[in-house]
Write a structure and sequence with these properties.
By secondary structure, the protein is of the alpha+beta class. About 25% of the residues lie in helices and about 35% in strands. A five-stranded antiparallel β-sheet has the order 7-11-10-9-8. The chain has a four-stranded mixed β-sheet with strand order 16-23-22-19. Strands 6-14-12 form a three-stranded mixed β-sheet, with helices on one face. Strand 1 (about 55-60) and strand 2 form a beta hairpin. Helix 2 runs antiparallel to helix 5 (about 120-125).
Amino acid sequence: MKKQMLEKKGTNLKSKLMAMFMAATMVFAMVPLGAGVAFAEEEDIDAADAAVAGTEETVEEAAGDVVFDVEEDAVEAAAVEEAAPAVEEADGEVSATAINKGYITIDMSTGTKVCKYTKEDLNAIQQGTGEIPVDLMAIQMILGFEDMGLINSVNSEEEQGELFDLDQNGSYDILITQSLDATQTYAIFTITKLGTCSIKKEISLAMPKEFQDMVEEQLGPNEEYYMGLKFVFVKAPVAKKANTLTLKAKKTTTVKIKYKKLKKKAQSFAISKVLTVSRAQGNVTYKKLSGNKKITVSSKGKVTVGKKLKKGTYTVKVNVTASGNASFNKMTKTAVFKVKVK
């Protein structure tokens, strides 16, 4: 994504983008950002080199930076085969445009983002038989934005990776490292949020308007592309649902207690004797709102009728509360029952 890409209008952008992606993918599959590493089988590397037909790749390493140079003549030759077909309609010839899919979202809300792909994925991409995984495309877009000067970066031997200043304010926001898994099956890119990250919530990076226009002009009809990257460091809170707490009175809402027993000691019963509580989201608690002071209700729903409470019928009103959780709001409902001392 060098400046000459913007200047050379006659170059087929689709071919150039694919050539760049394949060249970059091949090298970054074999060489981490901070140290050298290779897949176990050398023939895979040879197959990958042969897959980019007519394209000469030069990898220069200077001060830890990796630079990709793609020979423009080879790209121009590929332009003939990749030219976007026209869509003919009855009233004339109309060219359908490429589809802008917006931004690739990179979720950094947990502090890390892991992207991985196999040797088979890489070979399929290089041979033109597979699509570039979105995660891998995101990594290449980061490198592309770096190449266009939209992101500042520096190689870090201490961190064994590359540091990126996404908002270009002088402090680095993310670290990208690459490794192979223990079985050497997967190439793994890890994006880590740094302690020096100054981005509070999120940041979006879009390709320059001129470059985007070229994409829409030169990609095939209805082909899809992404216009940029969106890093999300803090997720917006998800709207909670209403609690599903349900109260249903039992057939008998009056509890009868003999005065003879109350003369000796207080009597108690569970509120579930008069009330059914169901579908509560979160912990359920109870609180007495009104009623005789000798009748108490604990937070767990134990109703106690005090010693020597006189004969009569007493109405008790309670609040039943479901605390809610990550998905549901708190809810409180009111219930009424009676205690009859006889």
